[in-house]
Amino acid sequence: MENLHNLKLSDFDYQLPDELIASEPLPSRSDSRLLIVKDNFEDRKFHDIINYLNTGDLLVLNNTKVVKARLFGQKPSGGKVEVMLERVISNQEIIAHIRTSKSIKIGMLIELPGDITMEVIKRLDNIFALRILNNIDIYQYLEQYGNLPLPPYMHRQAAIEDENRYQTVFAQHNGSVAAPTAGLHFTPELIAQIKAKGVNIAYVTLHVGSGTFKPVSVENISEHKMHSELFEITKDTIELIKETKKKNGAIIAVGTTSLRTLESIAQRGLHPQQGETDIFITPGFKFKLVDKLITNFHLPKSTLLMLVSAFSGKSKINLVYQHAITNKYRFFSYGDAMLLTNQEYNCGTK
Fold first, then answer.
1. Is residue 232 helix, strand or coil?
2. Which of 134, 211, 260, 263 has its CA 20 to 30 A from that of 73?
């Protein structure tokens, strides 16, 4: 077992050449590359994933939908303001990041497209609660006037193509400001082939917040305050989980968002539920539900790199990333994927 004591932020750093950051999607979703991580490494295409799924396994997808969360407006004085949605509370209240050239005061008004006005009513650490002074359907409004928020490392504004490609084909429930990117590789045809093989598919919902891009700023990772995100898991999914476990099938999470949802409910009890999770998974974490993980390659010093290090072992993940960089895999949201196995499941102890 690895020595997990005194792990620092610098232990999760690596050097990534800029040209390996995928800023554009490939022409076809499932043509991205797939790194199979076992005792050795296998370089495949994503559509080959079907060969690594078995009858009776359960594939768990996050069916959240990315909303056009970025709005550009102005103050009554004319000063420019950018509002970046974090969470919808109701049609009359949202939580958001605000960017403007001057300090933000309670009571400040923001004029937005469509003759909509929002008022700053509360500060919540570095974000704000805003009241909408008009009667609107917030999601319809965002669809009409908002802009898709691409991750900051893409260094570009969203194009028309992104409105389709930065959304999974199974997206259903509005609420995310970032895509559950491991799900972007799936096509309807691939999902149909997986079902035809006898692999069950279940859905969870976790609305991804902008905190997923927030860098860890403390060297002692135990001091990091994890962001909170809304999740929901239905009765149908709970029943499929129980059935899969009973028959010794593997539970395969598609993406870290699905994994975090599953491991959150494992701690609270296997029953339908909704709520918030701020689960922070680092090496030493004991996984209760997830056996395998399909995921993209994550940013240096990120909580997600810590998560996969907990899942498959830090020394293994170090080798995975070295292999991916040497073999020029594409990284981050529009990048390539890997299939990881939980280190305890690998040892036959799970």
1. strand
2. 211
Question: For residues 227 and 240, what is the distance between their CA atoms, to the nearest angstrom?
Answer: 29
The answer on pLDDT for 213 being more than 90 is: no
- Give helix 256-268 / helix 303-312 axis angle, nearest 10°: 70
pTM of the model: 0.94
Q: How far apart are CA 259 and CA 69, in angstroms?
A: 24
The dihedral built from the CA positions of residue 150, 254, 341 and 290, taken in this order, carries a sign that is positive
All residues at 6 or more sequence positions from 170 whose CB lies less than 8 Å from its CB, including other chains: 61, 63, 183, 186, 191, 203
Q: What is the CA radius of gyration of the chain?
A: 21
CB distance 121 to 130 below 8 Å: yes
For residue range 236-294, list pLDDT tens digits in order. 999 999 999 999 999 999 999 999 999 999 999 999 999 999 999 999 999 999 999 99
Cβ atoms of 311 and 342 closer than 8 Å: yes
- Give yes or no for a contact between 306 and 215, defined as CB atoms under 8 angstroms apart: no
* The pair of three-digit structure tokens given for residue 165, joined into one six-digit string: 């490609």
Tell me how far apart the alpha carbons of residues 320 and 38 are, in angstroms, rounded to a whole number.
10
What is the token pair recorded at 35?
Answer: 């790194």
Domains detected in the chain? 9-66+161-346 (3.40.1780.10), 70-147 (2.40.10.240)
> Which element (helix H / strand E) includes 143?
helix 138-145
DSSP structural state of residue 216: P
Question: For the chain, where are the E strands, in sequence order?
Answer: 33-37, 41-45, 58-62, 64-66, 70-74, 80-90, 93-100, 109-112, 116-124, 127-132, 173-176, 200-206, 229-233, 251-254, 273-277, 292-296, 337-341
The CA angle 65-179-284, to the nearest 5 degrees, is: 120
Please report the beta strands in 115-216, taking only residues with DSSP state E, as ranges in sequence order. 116-124, 127-132, 173-176, 200-206
Q: Which DSSP string do the residues of 228-288 spell out, in sequence order? A: -EEEEE-HHHHHHHHHHHHTTPPEEEESHHHHHHHHHHHHH-SS-EEEEE-----TT---S
130, two tokens:
């805003």
